[in-house]
Amino acid sequence: MAPEVLLGNFEMKTYGDRADVYSFGILVNEFLDESPPYMKILNDKNKINDLITRVTTGAEAGKNRPKLTSGVKILKEMIQKCWQLEPQNRPSFQKLKEDKPWDQARTASSNIHKNMVEILDLFSKDVKTVKFTEVAKKFAEVLGEPNKLTVKDENGPFDGHYIRTLMAALGIGKGTDPVTLESVRRVINWLSSNVQKKEVLDILYKVFTENYFFGLMEEDQAKEALSKSGKEGSYLIRWSNQSGQFILDYIPKKQKKKRKRKTTRVPGDFLSID
C-alpha cells in the first residue's frame, strides 16, 4: 500500500495511478527476491504502527522499503523509482511502457552467460585441463576486471582475495593445480543469469566468505566437518556436483544423526546475494 494511501482516508479518497506504480515496484521486488516484504514485522501486530511510520517517512531500501533484491541494475533502478515517497517522483505506467526496462534487463542478463562461454574456448577435444593462470586471465578479460585477477607468473604468488575466491570457486587448493573443463562449466552455470559482469567477482567473494558456505566438498567431508561441531542444529551449505544445485547438510534437533537434503534452484540463484 502506497504511503499516501496509508496516511489518508483510503475509503473516501481517490488516488491516482502513481499509488499503483508504488505497489508495482513492491511486487516486482518481491517476485525477484522470492519472499514477501516486511514478513518479520507483519507477524508482530505490535510493530504494524512502526511499519506505517517507516513506509511514510522515507524511501530507503532496507529501512523504509524492503531490502532491494540483487540482480540487473536497470531493474533495481526501476524498483527504486516506483517506490519513491512522493507520488509525483514515481514514473507513470505509460513512462514504464515506453522505457521498457524489462527488455533492457533481458538483454543485460543474457550477456553474462554469452560472454562467459568464451572461457570454454580454452579447452578442446585434446585439452582436458588448463593452467589456473590462463583461466584467471580469461575470466579477467571476459569480466573486464584485469586488475582484480592478475597473476604475474604461473607459479605465483597467488595473492588477493579475488584470486583466492576464483580458486575456491573452481575447486582447486593451489594456484598451480590444473583446472578442468567441468569446474569452469560449473562456475558459469551456477551464476544467475541476472548477474552483471562487474558483479560476478564481488558476489563470489561474498558467498565464499560466509561461515556456512563450504564450496565444493564430498559427503564424507561434510559429515566430518559437522562432526567437529556435534551440536544439534549445526549446518553447512555446499555445492553439489550437479550444476544448479546445492546441498544442505545438518544435524537436526533432538537427533544426532546427520541428514541431507538436496535442493534444486535456478542455476546460481544463491550467488545473487546482495
Question: What layout of secondary structure does this protein have?
Answer:
Layout: H1 3-7, H2 17-33, H3 39-42, H4 48-55, H5 73-82, H6 93-99, H7 101-116, E1 129-131, H8 132-143, H9 161-170, E2 178-180, H10 181-190, H11 200-208, E3 213-216, H12 219-229, E4 235-239, E5 245-250, E6 259-264
Parallel strand pairs: 3-4
Antiparallel strand pairs: 1-2, 4-5, 5-6
Helix pairs in contact: 2-5, 5-7, 9-11
Structure description:
- By secondary structure, this protein is an alpha+beta fold.
- The protein folds into 3 domains: 3-99, Transferase(Phosphotransferase), domain 1; 111-206, no CATH class; 211-272, SHC Adaptor Protein.
- Helices cover 43% and strands 10% of the residues.
- It is built from 12 helices and 6 strands.
- The protein has helices spanning 3-7, 17-33, 39-42, 48-55, 73-82, 93-99, 101-116, 132-143, 161-170, 181-190, 200-208, 219-229, and strands at residues 129-131, 178-180, 213-216, 235-239, 245-250, 259-264.
- A 4-stranded mixed beta sheet has the order 3-4-5-6, with helices on one face. Strands 1-2 form a two-stranded antiparallel sheet.
- Helix 2 packs antiparallel against helix 5, helix 5 (73-82) runs antiparallel to helix 7 (101-116) and helix 9 (161-170) crosses helix 11.
- The chain is globular.
- The model is unreliable at 263-274 (pLDDT under 50).
